[in-house]
Amino acid sequence: MVCVRIPATSANLGPGFDCLGMALSLYNVVRIEPSDAFQITLKGDYTADIPADETNLVWQSMCTLWEAIGFEIPTVSLDLENNVPPTRGMGSSSAAIVGGLVAANEYAGGVLSKQEILQIANRIEGHPDNVAPALLGGVTLAVTTETSVIARIVHSQPQFMALAIVPDFYLSTEKSRNVLPVSISRADAVYNLSRTALLVEALIHENYELLKEGMQDRLHQNQRASLVPGLGETLQVALDSGAYGSALSGSGPTILALVSSDKAEQVSQAMVDSLAAHGLTAKAYLLSVDSEGAAVI
């Protein structure tokens, strides 16, 4: 049997649209073993609306890798433990893709490197901001060129906690992307470029006081505010309550705050209360940054 653990991820971190991401200590697990008949068993905190047939994204990702390396698709049983909230901006699709690819690669003898797996993952997902940290761990910067993805780990284990406030509703990535404009002003481009650079500097040198400014954004968060009631207020409440920085997690609706451990409880309660004032219930996850990424266990 092959068993792979895959972390949740938070993309963008504010200004780093489609290029920055962070692996978090909340995990899905993929188990695969030979079987007389194809079967998928679902377990964990989230199983509703996840297919248990050949349309399952984990299985499709496995088949993509096997076909790419010329490995005959085997008859197997899959045990999928899903603890990453789906369609909430925490990288559930990337966890499925990366989990499937890493498990399939291990099952076939480990013929591909992580860099080669990343290229396949990016082709399936369409952007690397979640698949890179899901595969590599830590906080990652991923750049898409005409022919490949270049990914680097900015910091493997920053010394802060990640507070993920997860509202109780689904928000598809497609819907969240559709509200974004097709073009932006030069001023907004410069604004995000400078904040992204500042954010990377803050992470590399562990100067977390810079995160408040370094996680500011003009490209997507305000545009998505209509999809997440109370988003702007909750981001500000997090800062006012002591968070280093705050951002919409990926395409939302989850809201991310980076905090010191001693401020986590007060920031969490303030953010949950802020969303409640806008009619939303939310679950708070206090997580660390996962330094491993997808791991065979």
UniProtKB/TrEMBL annotation:
<dbReference type="InterPro" id="IPR006204">
    <property type="entry name" value="GHMP_kinase_N_dom"/>
</dbReference>
<dbReference type="InterPro" id="IPR000870">
    <property type="entry name" value="Homoserine_kinase"/>
</dbReference>
<keyword id="KW-0067">ATP-binding</keyword>
<keyword id="KW-0418">Kinase</keyword>
<feature type="binding site">
    <location>
        <begin position="85"/>
        <end position="95"/>
    </location>
    <ligand>
        <name>ATP</name>
    </ligand>
</feature>
<dbReference type="InterPro" id="IPR036554">
    <property type="entry name" value="GHMP_kinase_C_sf"/>
</dbReference>
<keyword id="KW-0808">Transferase</keyword>
<dbReference type="Pfam" id="PF00288">
    <property type="entry name" value="GHMP_kinases_N"/>
</dbReference>
<dbReference type="Pfam" id="PF08544">
    <property type="entry name" value="GHMP_kinases_C"/>
</dbReference>
<dbReference type="GO" id="GO:0005737">
    <property type="term" value="C:cytoplasm"/>
</dbReference>
<dbReference type="InterPro" id="IPR014721">
    <property type="entry name" value="Ribsml_uS5_D2-typ_fold_subgr"/>
</dbReference>
<comment type="pathway">
    <text>Amino-acid biosynthesis; L-threonine biosynthesis; L-threonine from L-aspartate: step 4/5.</text>
</comment>
<dbReference type="GO" id="GO:0009088">
    <property type="term" value="P:threonine biosynthetic process"/>
</dbReference>
<dbReference type="InterPro" id="IPR013750">
    <property type="entry name" value="GHMP_kinase_C_dom"/>
</dbReference>
<comment type="similarity">
    <text>Belongs to the GHMP kinase family. Homoserine kinase subfamily.</text>
</comment>
<keyword id="KW-0963">Cytoplasm</keyword>
<keyword id="KW-0547">Nucleotide-binding</keyword>
<feature type="domain" description="GHMP kinase C-terminal">
    <location>
        <begin position="199"/>
        <end position="272"/>
    </location>
</feature>
<dbReference type="InterPro" id="IPR006203">
    <property type="entry name" value="GHMP_knse_ATP-bd_CS"/>
</dbReference>
<feature type="domain" description="GHMP kinase N-terminal">
    <location>
        <begin position="56"/>
        <end position="138"/>
    </location>
</feature>
<keyword id="KW-0791">Threonine biosynthesis</keyword>
<keyword id="KW-0028">Amino-acid biosynthesis</keyword>
<comment type="function">
    <text>Catalyzes the ATP-dependent phosphorylation of L-homoserine to L-homoserine phosphate.</text>
</comment>
<dbReference type="GO" id="GO:0005524">
    <property type="term" value="F:ATP binding"/>
</dbReference>
<protein>
    <recommendedName>
        <fullName>Homoserine kinase</fullName>
        <ecNumber>2.7.1.39</ecNumber>
    </recommendedName>
</protein>
<dbReference type="InterPro" id="IPR020568">
    <property type="entry name" value="Ribosomal_Su5_D2-typ_SF"/>
</dbReference>
<dbReference type="GO" id="GO:0004413">
    <property type="term" value="F:homoserine kinase activity"/>
</dbReference>
